[in-house]
Specification:
By secondary structure, the chain is an alpha/beta fold. 39% of the residues lie in helices and 20% in strands.
Length: 445
């Protein structure tokens, strides 16, 4: 569980709007929805993630006496606002798509129903939590599709944009189907298997590479994965072959070697031949080094003899698509639907639901986006998760969300597995939603 964060971890305009609402006594119920306006270029789907941390935040958000005193000392705010935040607790309702659900543009993955000051004040942190994990999980899902059957390990902590990002990215990757993470805290907090080998510095600290291999093997006899590209990759592979019999006599088995530079496919083929010729057919090859789904797909096409990959920087930063065009927008206030009509950023008004259809083989066949009061055939994706500020069910185990993600990815149309833009998945906007938008535009509701 993340440590409690200050209620001040938000944007200033949340407080300036809050003061306006309070001064005008605008405290009627509002409906906000979080959605992605448009899929990033080359992305064919997104994977919902971050709901668990969002609910933790809503359960715990508050302002300490020191924080309220700081707001008062700033001189910006009225006594009414200060009293309000001193007693602030989230008291609203939340409906959401389960973590691990595949979704598409304009489909809300979370809806908040609460008095408008409450719903507004939680906006920034909700976007912060949902956006980041969804971004990374969606990238990780593409890596999983590019490397079926491979051991995939998140190696990105050291390049993550801060400690929380590194921890939550490990969670998002595991949810999407990765086998584990280098992040030790992620194992303690989320039960994610942790993996680790050695750095080049361990080899460089020794005057003899073969001695470095042996020292590491004897220090870690149950996890002998040797990094062999510090100097000459193929020469190091021969040293591993020479070392193996002595270790085996002491009951130590070499699990794998790791490649981290150069032409990974070519090195893997040469190293595989050396290991096999030396009787080490059971020693695997693991690769790392600026990898992403495109490079892993290329290596798969070459049939490179690599059994697993450590994927870091490009994954945790989602380097080819480093953000989602997402929003948390007002859809209803005081019982009346609301709609933003800004050029290029128009929204669909009202409380919405997404219904998913499947074909005879259980493959996703199309979604319908409509108003909540317009039931449709299919599976409704938004489900109640919180009422009156309290969860309706215990936290869903990460393993269950991971299983759902695997099931969802497995039910995608084959064309959406592509790493480049495919024919878009069909999402139909129901007539009822079109009619509501027209009525709002004509101020009939």
């Amino acid at each position: 569980m993340l440590p409690p964060y200050s209620g001040l971890l938000t944007d200033l305009y949340q407080f300036t709007m809050l003061q306006g609402y309070l001064e005008q006594e605008m405290e009627e119920v509002a409906v906000y929805e979080f959605f992605v306006r448009k899929l990033p270029a080359g992305r064919n789907f997104l994977l919902a993630a971050g709901l668990e941390q969002a609910l933790q935040f809503l359960e715990t958000v508050s302002f300490s006496a020191e924080e309220v005193a700081w707001l008062e000392q700033s001189g910006r705010f009225t006594p009414k606002l200060l009293d309000y935040v001193a007693n602030f607790r989230f008291s609203g309702d939340v409906d959401a798509m389960a973590e691990g659900t595949v979704f598409f543009s304009d489909e809300p993955i979370l809806r908040v129903v609460a008095p408008i000051p409450v719903a507004q004040l939680v906006e920034t942190r909700l976007i912060n939590l949902l956006h980041f994990q969804t971004l990374v999980a969606s990238k990780a899902a593409r890596v999983v599709l590019a490397g079926p059957g491979k051991l995939l390990v998140d190696f990105g902590l050291r390049r993550a944009h801060g400690a929380e990002a590194g921890l939550l990215a490990a969670r998002a990757c595991y949810l999407a189907g990765f086998g584990g993470s280098s992040n030790v805290l992620a194992e303690r907090e989320f039960g994610i298997p942790s993996y680790g080998t050695m750095a080049h510095s361990f080899i460089q600290a020794h005057t003899d590479e073969a001695q470095a291999f042996e020292n590491f093997a004897r220090a870690q006899p149950d996890n002998v994965v040797l990094l062999i590209d510090t100097y000459d990759t193929e020469a190091a592979a021969h040293k591993v072959v020479a070392l193996a019999p002595g270790l085996a006599r002491d009951g130590i088995r070499i699990k794998a070697v790791r490649l981290d530079s150069g032409d990974l496919g070519e090195h893997a083929r040469k190293v595989r031949a050396i290991l096999d010729a030396g009787g080490l057919n059971g020693v695997g090859i693991f690769a790392s080094g600026n990898l992403d789904e495109f490079e892993i797909a290329r290596l798969a096409t070459q049939q490179a003899p690599i059994g697993g990959y450590g994927v870091g920087t490009r994954l945790l930063t989602s380097s080819d698509a480093p953000y989602l065009d997402c929003a948390y927008k007002l859809q209803e206030y005081a019982g009346h639907p609301r709609r933003k009509r800004s050029e290029g950023k128009a929204t669909w008004p009202g409380r919405k639901q997404v219904y998913r259809h499947y074909d005879a083989n259980g493959c996703m066949a199309g979604d319908v986006l409509t108003v909540e009061s317009d039931p449709q055939p299919g599976e409704p994706l938004l489900q109640p998760v919180m009422r009156g500020g309290r969860r309706l069910h215990p936290a869903i185990p990460l393993q269950d969300s991971r299983s759902l993600a695997a099931q969802q990815i497995g039910r995608l149309p084959e064309g959406l597995h592509a790493l480049t833009a495919a024919v878009p998945y069909p999402v139909q906007v129901a007539p009822a939603l079109h009619e509501l938008a027209r009525a709002v535009d004509e101020r009939r509701v």
